[in-house]
Design brief:
Largest sheet: 6 strands, mixed
Number of strands: 13
CATH superfamily of the largest domain: MetI-like
CATH architecture of the largest domain: Orthogonal Bundle
Number of domains: 3
Strand content: 5-15%
Distance between the termini: 15 Å
Number of helices: 18
CATH class of the largest domain: Mainly Alpha
Length: about 500
């Protein structure tokens, strides 16, 4: 190990330890900008939030209620991040369904929170499923009428929204013959208590149980597609799932895009906020070691959540490796096109690279998923591989072209002068030198690819990043899952860099 490399690793280790130590010793107190009381209003009154900042999940209707009470909406992609910013005082509250707020406030470690209901005069909506298939809508409505008539739905509501709620309780046994095929249901596991990751990393919740009962009613096995809430409607519109069951409220605007089932339950909004009438004591004052033990126990050991991390890592590596292999193959073709003297072919190659390099990767991923493969049943992972293959090919093609153009033409002419054909000269003289010169950029491209795969959660793939988000949504520990996932990415990328450097040294005549 070189001295420079050793110093870099030491500095990196110090930074990580400092970050972890700061997390382990944080004290859970009320931030200065949140001091105050409800002395002008009744206790737990929503009116206190007028003029303040309230977190909202993107794609959810809570922003309407937030604006109605005179507060400023701040948008987030997941509940755990929103709740953590409430905890840290960056926002004054988190607006979501009242049922979710009550559950979140009761989670271990969330004793500093309280649930504040917003009157139904500000928001009251019926939650329903969505689908684009009229036969599915008809059959679900018939099923819903049956479970409502026999009391099953009332029992479910009592268990999931009443005092009997137990997030650790397993789902009831629901016999299903599965003789009539399969049913694909889209949901969002960041929607307590409708859908969340329960024991053993398995989906649980009111909507999940309802979906399983509907599958049994049809005699179809159920496959759930878990994604961010904002992706549910595009997923259904593109025909990727038969029906979506989550906490989707019926609105006239949404009716223009999708069809709703009959109403399932009625919801109102609530605000998750820090308790202002008392200051909570430190919940993590045992130092780094205690924080680390608690973090490992809550986020990895409990319910075998480490399996989600392992599975997610496997998906990340699979997408990365396949995309790099196919991207390299396609990139060689792009390089060949870019080197053509034909203006049409060369221009097409340049336009291709310009479009790929000028479009955000997440946009390309969504275009590939919802438009290019919108009406197909291709695996989501293969769609992601296709998207990242396209992205990788543009980079590889340009890098390889640049490397080939750096080879001295005199060497090629010398090879031709001793009887080599153009192809032999290319394979013997040009290509080996080009590979050596392109390898550093190729290595950096693969490292960037591994990190870029973190966005595949947008198309319902549970990769490493998504696994960490799911754990955060269950434990509401904002620090440990993020840091643990970051360390795994760091180890993977450093390993890749080490491997590529070995290859570079080999091609450069070393070893």
């Amino acid at each position: 190990m070189s001295l420079r490399k050793g110093h870099a690793l030491i500095i990196l280790a110090v930074l990580l330890v400092s970050l972890l130590a700061s997390c382990g010793t944080q004290s859970q107190t009320i931030p200065e900008n949140r001091t105050g009381s409800y002395e002008d209003f009744d206790d737990r009154d929503y009116r206190w939030f007028s003029g303040k900042k309230i977190a909202n999940i993107t794609g959810v209707l809570t922003y309407i209620t937030t604006e109605k009470i005179g507060a400023e909406p701040v948008y987030y992609n997941d509940s755990s991040s929103a709740a953590e910013d409430v905890r840290n005082g960056r926002v004054d509250g988190f607006m979501t369904t009242l049922s979710a707020v009550r559950v979140m406030a009761l989670q271990p470690g969330n004793e500093v929170f309280e649930a504040i209901p917003v009157p139904t005069e500000y928001f009251s909506a019926e939650v329903a499923g969505i689908s684009m298939d009229e036969d599915v809508l008809t059959s679900f409505n018939g099923f819903l009428a049956g479970v409502r008539a026999d009391g099953t739905l009332d029992d479910m509501k009592d268990r999931w929204f009443g005092d009997r709620l137990d997030l650790d309780a397993p789902l009831p046994e629901i016999p299903n013959t599965g003789e009539n095929g399969s049913l694909k249901i889209a949901t969002c596991s960041d929607s307590l208590p409708y859908a969340f990751m329960g024991s053993g990393g398995m989906l649980n919740g009111f909507s999940v149980e309802l979906g399983l009962r509907y599958g049994a009613y049809l005699g179809k096995t159920v496959e759930f597609a878990d994604m961010e809430f904002g992706a549910l409607i595009p997923y259904i519109v593109s025909g990727k799932a038969d029906i979506s069951l989550a906490n989707m409220a019926i609105t006239e605007e949404r009716k223009q895009s999708v069809s709703f089932t009959d109403p399932i339950i009625e919801e109102q909004h609530g605000i998750l906020a820090l308790r202002l009438t008392e200051v909570a004591g430190s919940v993590q004052d045992g130092g780094f070691v205690d924080w680390l033990k608690t973090g490992i126990e809550r986020n990895l050991i409990t319910d075998n959540r480490w399996k989600m991390i392992v599975d997610g890592l496997g998906v990340t590596l699979l997408i990365s490796i396949l995309s790099q292999v196919f991207g390299t193959i396609l990139g060689c073709f792009i390089c060949w096109v870019l080197l053509r003297k034909n203006k049409i072919a060369n221009g097409a190659g340049r336009v291709y690279c310009a479009i790929i390099n000028g479009t955000p990767i997440v946009v390309l991923l969504l275009i590939t998923y919802y438009i290019i493969f919108g009406n197909t049943n291709i695996s989501n992972i293969l769609v992601a591989v296709a998207a990242f293959t396209i992205v990788t090919s543009a980079g590889v093609g340009q890098v390889l072209k640049g490397a080939i153009e750096t080879v001295d033409p005199v060497e090629i002419e010398a090879a031709r002068s001793i009887g080599f054909t153009a192809f032999q000269a290319f394979m013997t003289v040009t290509l080996p030198q080009a590979i050596r010169r392109a390898m550093p950029a190729y290595m950096n491209g693969f490292v960037e690819l591994v990190k870029a795969t973190a966005i595949v959660g947008f198309i319902a793939i549970q990769d490493l990043t998504r696994a960490g988000d799911i754990i955060r949504s269950r434990t509401y520990d904002a620090f440990f899952p993020l840091i643990f996932v970051a360390i795994i990415y760091l180890v993977v990328t450093l390993t890749c860099v080490w491997g590529f450097k070995k290859l570079i040294k080999k091609y450069s005549g070393g070893m």
